[in-house]
Specification:
Strand content: 25-35%
Strand order of the largest sheet: 1-2-3-4-5-6-7-8
Number of strands: 25
Number of domains: 4
Number of helices: 19
Low-confidence stretches: 12-27, 94-99, 705-710, 712-718
Largest sheet: 8 strands, antiparallel, barrel
Length: 727
């Protein structure tokens, strides 16, 4: 095929322009952005034959119509179909052999695949490859009337397109067509070059139109339940509603970002979900969470709010935003529904500085009345109970709703006051008093929880005493219950203003035990565990300005109760010893009484054990320990040296008690400031039992070489090295 000079120059210019434009195209996917579902176009061409009998004409002309259908996922690929006709007029002949009339009409149809790419908003290039069929009709080819012949077609065309508007385009189209003539007339076999222009109308919506910013997403029904300020931390991690969004387009949208915003109560919108791509017609359910700020705690009563679900996305490479408003009610920080009993944990505000200050006051009030050797958590619970009583805190049934009514119907809105509010009000129902007691105990590091039974809630705390040692707390085993090997104690806080601690303790146990055969109706929740889900309400530091009460009354009530408990414990051990008349049991009474600071009872029990057996070494050593605890170090030394001499005389240095005796002698010398002898006996004790002396290094170094640090270690260890057993 040979192109004429003018045609060659035109194609060269087009190819250079197209290549340069394509090389400078930007990375934005304009093809997807301006994609259209289908188009109709019309074109006109001037055709120049390049071979076969078509050369009898210089040029001829054609009209055609084309429909294009871009592939939705790949809009640059565009299947097409073309129908058209060409008018062929033969050149005038001066030769008699060419009088045959070659004038004809060519009716054709093509189908194929096109490629088209936008390089700017208003300019695109492309190429089409098509195969088809052509029917040629001669009016009077042989002088005998109409004659018909058929061709097969193969077409390759390019186009340079100007887009003045989204729906309208203008093309310049160079085309090469190869015709293969079928029998009976094959004269038209060969190539033809055509160049022409066309216009197209593209259906669809202009993505740059104003309505396009809201057209790609539809929202399903959005409904929020009432929200509770006290559940602020819960809503930040746990969905309380869902919203459905749907892509209404016939193509994917990308980079979908869904968030929830509540003006005035959020520092920034809460991100809900990121979706890389949402396919055409697809829906997705988005769980709704909310990161509220502390302003939610400043609401009073029921506050109607209008929030907003916000969706940002990219449609055809164009950023878009849509939103949907949602109305709901925010209840204040005292409100709660009991669909989940664990919500009580949100009101146990152990980090409240007001409660920590109050706890410090309580501990100072009873510090001189503490019983050594008895459970510190139990003594703290007693002190808190009596401090609240002295403050005037009482149980008061809620006027608007009760825990019982709210527990029976989760739709009922109950109110739990924060511990600081209950202190100020000096009254509360069972849920208020439970939160208050637990929060104060937790503020000093004592683990707590709460028990729910039908219509009621009350606190429980850990004692740090092993279950096997229940008699160290109370001889009645039913007064405590086991939680993972540790004894826990319930307290009926509704009795705070009317009864003593022991009665409240016993009542809590009775309520727990009453449902022993119906455990589904009683549940125990641990504060540390439930607050992993329902974190406590955040509060600003504040001085409550309270008059805490008379410390003397608190201390007296506290000591009265501790005395009763200690008497009960010692009496239990004494009864056992009296019944058995066993030296070991009397020795045990002596140890228990000494640990509780009951010196007279301890001495009496130990002397009774020695009366039963004058050579009972354990009781003799413990007698020295009682003197040591009483700070009577001379008598302590006397007894310890007697025990040392007895063991050496009996060649009993291999006994584990021997090292204890030597270490006790060293400690007694140290307290008498005889540091040389303290060091000597420390070395002896170390030789007898190296593990025993590991925390008593100060006995070797003396007070001039860092004794304060060493004595700190001693203070945390056992106060006396008691001896148990039959030796």
């Amino acid at each position: 095929m040979r192109l004429q000079g003018r045609q060659r120059h035109f194609l060269a210019v087009v190819l250079l322009f197209v290549g340069a434009t394509f090389a400078h195209a930007q990375g934005i996917d304009l093809n997807s952005y301006y994609a259209y579902p289908w188009s109709l176009g019309a074109s006109f061409q001037s055709i120049t034959p390049q071979g076969g009998s078509q050369q009898a004409a210089q040029t001829y002309y054609g009209l055609s119509g084309t429909a294009r259908f871009p592939i939705p996922g790949v809009p640059t690929l565009q299947p097409f179909a073309t129908l058209g006709f060409n008018l062929f007029t033969a050149a005038t002949s001066t030769t008699q052999t060419q009088v045959a009339n070659f004038d004809n009409t060519q009716i054709l149809g093509l189908a194929g695949l096109g490629w088209s790419s936008r390089v700017t908003k208003n300019f695109e290039i492309g190429a089409d490859l098509g195969l088809g069929y052509e029917m040629i009709i001669f009016p009077d080819l042989l002088g005998t009337g109409p004659t018909r012949t058929d061709n097969l077609l193969a077409s390759l065309s390019g186009h340079v397109t100007l887009n003045p508007a989204y729906s309208f385009s203008i093309d310049v189209v160079p085309t090469l067509t190869y015709r293969y003539g079928l029998e009976p007339l094959t004269n038209f076999t060969g190539l033809a070059f055509g160049i022409g222009g066309g216009v197209n109308y593209r259906f669809g919506d202009d993505p740059d139109a104003p309505k396009a910013s809201i057209r790609s997403i539809s929202f399903g029904e959005v409904s929020f339940p009432p929200l509770y300020a006290a559940m602020q931390s819960y809503y930040a991690k746990n969905a309380f509603a869902k919203v459905t969004i749907k892509n209404t387009e016939k193509f994917p949208i990308t980079d979908v970002q869904v968030s929830f915003n509540q003006a005035g109560y959020m520092d920034a919108p809460t991100k809900l979900m990121s979706i890389a791509s949402l396919d055409a017609g697809k829906s997705v359910d988005v769980p709704v969470v909310a990161s509220f700020n502390s302003e939610v705690f400043n609401t009073n009563g029921d506050t109607p709010l209008n929030g907003e679900i916000q969706v940002a996305y990219v449609s055809h490479n164009r950023p878009a935003n849509q939103s949907q408003s949602v109305s709901y009610v925010l209840y204040d920080r005292t409100s709660i529904s009991w669909d989940d009993n664990r919500k009580e944990g949100a009101f146990i505000t152990k980090a409240d500085t007001a409660l920590r200050n109050y706890a410090t006051f309580i501990r100072q009030a009873v510090k001189d009345r503490l019983v050594p050797g008895y459970s510190s958590p139990v003594q703290t619970a007693m002190a808190v109970y009596y401090a609240l009583k002295e403050l005037g805190v009482i149980y008061q049934l809620a006027l608007t709703s009760s825990f019982a009514a709210a527990q029976a119907n989760p739709l009922v809105v109950d109110h739990v006051h924060l511990p600081r509010e209950t202190l100020q009000r000096k009254a509360g129902d069972c849920s208020d008093l439970t939160a208050l007691f637990d929060a104060i105990m937790e503020s000093v590091g004592i683990p707590t929880g709460f028990i729910t039974v039908p219509g009621h809630i009350y606190p429980v705390f850990g004692t740090k005493i092993a279950t096997a040692n229940y008699r160290e707390l109370h001889p009645d085993k039913t007064m405590t219950f086991d939680v993972n090997g540790e004894l826990w104690i319930p307290v009926e806080m509704t009795m705070v203003g009317t009864s003593d601690f022991l009665s409240a303790w016993r009542k809590g146990v009775e309520e727990w035990s009453a449902l022993a055969n119906d455990t589904k109706d009683r549940q125990i929740y641990f504060t540390g565990t439930v607050q992993n889900v329902f974190s406590p309400v955040g509060l600003k530091e504040e001085d409550l300005g309270l008059q805490y009460g008379d410390t003397r009354k608190i201390a007296d009530n506290f000591r009265d109760t501790t005395d009763k408990v200690i008497d009960t414990v010692i009496d239990s051990y004494t009864t056992t010893a009296t019944t058995s008349n066993s030296k070991a049991d009397y020795n045990r009474v002596g140890i228990i009484a000494a640990q509780f600071g009951r010196w007279d009872q301890a001495l009496k029990a130990l002397n009774t054990a020695l009366a039963l057996d004058r050579n009972y070494l354990s009781a003799e050593i413990n007698l020295g320990n009682v003197y040591f605890l009483q700070q009577d170090y001379q008598n302590a030394l006397k007894v310890f040296h007697q025990a040392e001499g007895s063991m050496e005389a009996d060649s009993n240095q291999a006994s584990p008690l021997y090292g204890r005796v030597l270490l006790s002698i060293s400690r007694s010398y140290y307290e008498l400031e005889n540091y040389d002898q303290a060091s000597v006996y420390y070395d002896k004790a170390s030789a007898a039992d190296p593990n025993l002396v590991s925390t008593y290094g100060y006995l070797k170094t003396g007070p001039t070489t860092g004794s304060s640090g060493s004595r700190a270690s001693e203070a945390t260890g056992p106060q006396a090295l008691f001896a148990e057993g039959e030796e």
